[in-house]
Amino acid sequence: GCEFLFPQASMMFAQCTRLCATSVLLIALLCCILSPPAQASKSSEDIRCKCICPPYRNISGHIYNKNVSQKDCNCLHVVEPMPVPGNDVEAYCLLCECKYEERSTTTIKVIIIIYLSVVGALLLYMAFLVLVDPLIRKPDAYTQPLHNEEENEDARSLATAPTPSGARANTVLERVEGAQQRWKRQVQEQRKTVFDRHKMLS
Amino acid sequence: MDQKGYRRGSFQSSTSDEDMLEIAGASLDFSMADDDPPLDREMGGFSSYNGGGMNGSSTMMDFLEEPLPGVGTYEDFNTIDWVREKSRDRDRHREITSRSKESTWALIHSVSDAFSGWLLMLLIGLLAGSLAGLIDISAHWMTDLKEGVCLAGFWFNHEHCCWKSNTTFTDRDKCPEWKSWSQLILGYGEGAFAYILNYFMYVSWALLFSLLAVLLVKGFAPYACGSGIPEIKTILSGFIIRGYLGKWTLIIKTITLVLAVSSGLSLGKEGPLVHVACCCGNILCHLFTKYRKNEAKRREVLSAAAAAGVSVAFGAPIGGVLFSLEEVSYYFPLKTLWRSFFAALVAAFTLRSINPFGNSRLVLFYVEFHMPWHLLELVPFILLGIFGGLWGAFFIRSNIAWCRRRKTTKLGKYPVLEVFVVTAITAVLAFPNEYTRMSTSELISELFNDCGILDSSKLCEYVNDFNSTKGDDLPDRAAGPGVYTAMWQLALALIMKVFITIFTFGMKVPSGLFIPSMAVGAIAGRLLGVAVEQLAFYHHDWAIFSGWCSQGADCITPGLYAMVGAAACLGGVTRMTVSLVVIMFELTGGLEYIVPLMAAAMTSKWVADAIGREGIYDAHIRLNGYPFLEAKEEFSHKTLAMDVMRPRRSDPPLTVITQDSMTVEDVETIINETTYSGYPVVVSRESQRLVGFVLRRDLIISIENARKKQDGIVSTSIIYFTDHSPPLPPSSPSMLKLRSILDLSPFTVTDQTPMEIVVDIFRKLGLRQCLVTHNGKLLGIITKKDVLKHIAQLANQDPDSILFN
């Protein structure tokens, strides 16, 4: 019958949409991280051929860098000016080792900037929580001291429910605030377990 | 919904639970009219999708009875019921398969359900590889930030800064774009004042990084500290730690891992990378219903994610899978083996395409030489194995003693100060010695390096005799002054690393153990290798050398000794066997060195096992009191089940619930007065014949829901677990049927069962509790905690150290 397939189908569809949306988002994010290496390998400043030549007779060791393509990455193309006369070139080049290397400066730049911005955002959020938040919440919060071992569920649940009882937290702001309060309680509980009671991770 | 009862002591932080609790409960029609004919089994199966899917009885009432949200989930710090989870998954799979014949949509659903596992593995591999690339690149940059900055773009580390410019053969580090701090501030880089300024900047940056790390951990995600592997082992054995694998823990662990590694502390990033990968696995599980709702399936995914984590840490996919199999996982079905390998490969491939080290290698210390070795060299290799075992046992003992002191005394009250002091000591001692100033991965890479004519580092400063140079194949040569300097500097570095790692592992920042142990082993190995090389050079006419190591031949490779030493020390600390050898041979890319590696790994394991039985992760599990039932050890005592069961002779009798004669009030009293996580249900108190087992959490949720949603349920209503309601006078209040939350097939043993069989049952089936009967009547109960306490007691350890329920 359709009547019980339909709710199931709509539930599956909703889940599928959620799954698809999250997968698409994730794959888009990963493509952002992975595509710079694919594109930037063509950039001229990101490839090089590095030839290391050891000391030979009375010539000191030297390192040569040149940006040539991989097929041209050998001693004859890269080592210039050649320090030995023509008949010794082959013996000298046998000692040299040439390696083709590529890198992606875009990837490095993007990743470092992402990292620094995340660290900066976390520090700002921490500063906000430590300095600004208590000033905002002072009128209606019942703050518990951090070392309080007893768990007073009722008081905590009463204090952290800013919405009137019976009404669902429908507006976005109230939901965000509810989620933030839940998260804070959770972090406090974790802090107690790890740092105060040393129950875990000592 | 008021959630007082089961929130005591636990916080549901996973979004899935909260979503489930906010859904309005399904309508429950518990009218007295029970004479509608039962529907056939096909429809009845629908209701058992998500709840207590043990009983297949299907009346009209059961069919309309959707499982309550919250029933079948677990409280924090509790053990899951593997049997129940697996049977729920089988029911779900059966239902999907049976429905797939009905419509195209259902067929698509069943196909997508089968493929969801593979899609999940792909996503986990991608995410783990990307995060590992981010960690590698950021850690490289920040490590070099302590010494200087690149003027061509501040985001370049030292090596990339000097990439384009021409460096000299002897001074490969110097280039005009890279300025050390003294060069930047003072304008010149030589001299005493510049050195002091560099020293000061190094120590300041190190302190800044580590302070930032510990403040972020303390402020946002306290679960992000430590290595993570002991806790993941416990989670994979069936324990629930809410929030340990959540998104905040993931973000903070990634960020603070980079900070901790860059601050120069003696720790590595491999263990925390496993935690990061498991967090990715857990978070991505929420996308798929199959894995979100079933704890046993989720743990299969976490095993695969752990394999992906080790794979990106070492560039060793096979080693990662074996590490997950050997060290981390508890139950590892064969299906998981193939999927773990897939996840590990995808992760390694993703990391390779991000290319953090610029040469398409995944690890900094990849070994590229393939020099042969001689059988007589097995003697120094076995010596290295003995050293590895001794160091491993010493490290475990001292680290556990220090962690216990941190746990019990005032030292544990000042975590931030502790990190500050340890970083200060490490940085101050590390800067003068160039081998401790460089990052540990670079040190290992330099020690693994075989000296050729193209190398100009201090360690390769041998006395060259140009006349006998034939191409790149250098013979054994006498050590030059550079090598002697390097030797005593390395010896000092070894002593420092041996002692400082003891205080570093276990601090409140993410800390791994693999790289420091490998460094200790590599230094010891290289020292021994150079010693043997010089011995062979100066005494090539001795009997042991004359056969194979004539003058002018290249017979001893100190780099190989360093590698074998690293493997020996790592094996001594973690007691890894197969996975260690496979990781090391994937690092070398060849099978030539399997015999030395195996000899050293086996020797070190035997020596370390002779001194202390546990590896570092098991020792930390025992220190923290996690309820982890060790699967590798045999239970060898002759006790019986009745020696371990509760209640003991002096205790009050077993708390039971009768199947149809207790009221709601009686049950609530029992729940409030006792703290057991479940109660057996018997036919009556006199007969004590077993009906089933009911969990505390399910009882609380069902009773609260019934009080709110159902008509007529009051404190004097009778609760019944039978199929049909007991006969009662019509004036009594309506009755509450709770058969759906009753487990009708609890495991039982008789009281004369030997404990070794009981322990085996617990291990193999993953039970939480087991009922004990005598002559068919219920006598007592054995829980996993009782088993653990019993094992601890018999091993003369403190049974009260098992902390969790």
TrEMBL record, chain A:
Which stretches are transmembrane? 110-132
Q: What keywords is this UniProt entry annotated with? A: Membrane, Signal, Transmembrane, Transmembrane helix
Q: Which GO terms describe its cellular component?
A: lysosomal membrane
Q: Does the keyword Transferase apply?
A: no
Query: Which compartments does it reside in?
Result: Membrane
Query: Quick check: keyword Secreted in the entry?
Result: no
Main localization (coarse):
membrane
InterPro entries named in the record: TMEM9/TMEM9B
Signal peptide extent: 1-40
| Annotated coiled-coil segments of the chain | none
UniProt family annotation: Belongs to the TMEM9 family.
Q: PANTHER family, from UniProt?
A: PROTON-TRANSPORTING V-TYPE ATPASE COMPLEX ASSEMBLY REGULATOR TMEM9, TRANSMEMBRANE PROTEIN 9 FAMILY MEMBER
**Protein name stated in the entry:** TMEM9 protein
UniProtKB/TrEMBL annotation, chain B:
Domain CBS: where? 645-709, 735-801
Whether Chaperone counts among this entry's keywords is no
From the UniProt record, list the reaction(s) this protein catalyses: 2 chloride(in) + H(+)(out) = 2 chloride(out) + H(+)(in)
Q: Name one Pfam family in it.
A: Voltage_CLC
Where located? Cell membrane; Endosome membrane; Golgi apparatus membrane; Membrane
Say what the protein does: Proton-coupled chloride transporter. Functions as antiport system and exchanges chloride ions against protons. Important for normal acidification of the endosome lumen. May play an important role in renal tubular function. The CLC channel family contains both chloride channels and proton-coupled anion transporters that exchange chloride or another anion for protons. The absence of conserved gating glutamate residues is typical for family members that function as channels.
Quaternary assembly: Interacts with NEDD4 and NEDD4L.
Protein name, UniProt field: Chloride channel protein
Q: Which organism is it from?
A: Trogon melanurus
Organism lineage reads as: Eukaryota, Metazoa, Chordata, Craniata, Vertebrata
Which gene name belongs to this protein?
Clcn5
